[in-house]
Amino acid sequence: MSTIARRPLRADARRNREKVVAAASSAFAEIGLEAQVEDIARRAGVGVGTVYRHFPTKDALVEALAEEHFERLADTVEAALEEHGDAWDVFSTAIWRAATAAADDVAWCEIIGGRPRAGDAGSHGQQRLRAALATLIGRAQAAGVMREDATVDDIKTIMCGFGHVAAAQRAGAELDWKRYLGIALDGLQAR
Predict the structure, then answer these.
(1) Hey, what domains does the chain have and what are their CATH numbers?
(2) pLDDT at 44 over 70
(3) Which residues, 6 or more positions from 163, have their beta carbon under 8 angstroms from its beta carbon?
């Protein structure tokens, strides 16, 4: 990562970047990672050059979308920290909410299922998500309702597996991501 400080974007450049990210999110969610930069530019109402000015490669755009997705996942899981009740119910409900939102996004399933590097970036959203998951796991373990050896990395692995299944299901495979996520969560419960 560069140590050169970035200047803040001008207001019009910031708006264009936001439009490109929103258009890419929409195109990738609908079409998957095969969405073309030209389609993204058209959806954003900007030229292809504007897309490349902000994101020199399609991978850079995918990484920006992954960071935004991790921020949304972190929001979902952090919201669960405020919920009261059975620790297992709070944990599993948070995972189901996050998974349901992710399953509707073709590109996210492709990213998690086929581009594990995008999940290793160490972004702010991932750090927030990791901390919130660790808290929920700790609460469930302290209540005796979750396996004592369960870790945040276990959840990450489950979500990557879920990404593979959801992507395959979208491609026509006779799989049910909800069934597999339920099985995985059952395996985390204390017996």
Answers:
(1) 9-56 (1.10.10.60), 65-188 (1.10.357.10)
(2) yes
(3) 102, 108, 109, 110, 111, 112, 113, 114
